[in-house]
Amino acid sequence: MIALVEEKPFVFLLAELALQGVIPPLVELLESELEDVLVNAVSAIRVLCEGHSGNKTQVAENGNASFDTKTEFTFVLFLEVLQHDTGFSNLTGAIAHLVEFLQTDSDVLQAASAAAIASVTANHKANQDAIVDDRAVK
């Protein structure tokens, strides 16, 4: 069953949110020192990328970027929708951070990062190649 938000399927909401600029602030949050922030940002990236090739590319290509008030509002809205719906180098953008998080001492962050990497690379050859080329997988 697909969750509906304002009579739109959730998958379309994910595309809309990406167009509104929610991915750069998520990538920026990957610089946080707080584990809870990292786990939530990683989980949000995973959800954004599931079944959405355009979002996967944007996550891989996005480095740190500053964002404006409109984007911050959209991001807060996205996290509220995400929480409601889900309960919850050569590498660039978020992928480099996700790979780095696999080496942390936090089992929770490692698991969230592994799930996000699976989502970001599923059926996306360029992202798969980037991870393999950087020897992030063995």
Written overview of the protein:
With 138 residues, the chain is mainly α. The chain has one domain (12-133). It has eight helices and two strands, in the order ββαααααααα. The protein has helices at 10-19, 23-29, 35-49, 53-61, 69-86, 93-101, 107-121, 125-133; strands at residues 4-5, 8-9. A hairpin with a 2-residue loop joins strand 1 and strand 2. Helix 6 packs antiparallel against helix 7. It is globular and about 35 Å long. Mean pLDDT is 75; it is low at 1-5, 63-73 and 80-88.
SSE map:
Elements lengths: L3 E2 L2 E2 H10 L3 H7 L5 H15 L3 H9 L7 H18 L6 H9 L5 H15 L3 H9 L5
Antiparallel strand pairs: 1-2
Helix pairs in contact: 2-3, 3-7, 4-6, 6-7
Mean pLDDT: 75
Structural class: mainly alpha
Subunit arrangement of the protein: single chain
Q: Which percent range fits the helix content?
A: 55-70%
SSE string, helix = H, strand = E? EEHHHHHHHH
The number of helical runs is 8
Task: Tell me, briefly, the overall form.
Answer: globular
Rg over C-alpha atoms, rounded to the nearest angstrom:
14 Å
The number of E-state strands comes to 2
Task: Name the strands of the widest sheet in spatial order.
Answer: 1-2
Largest sheet: 2 strands, antiparallel
The span between the termini is 36 Å
Unreliable stretches (pLDDT < 50, length at least 5) are 1-5, 63-73, 80-88
- What percentage of the residues does DSSP assign to strands (E)? under 5%
Give the tally of structural domains: 1
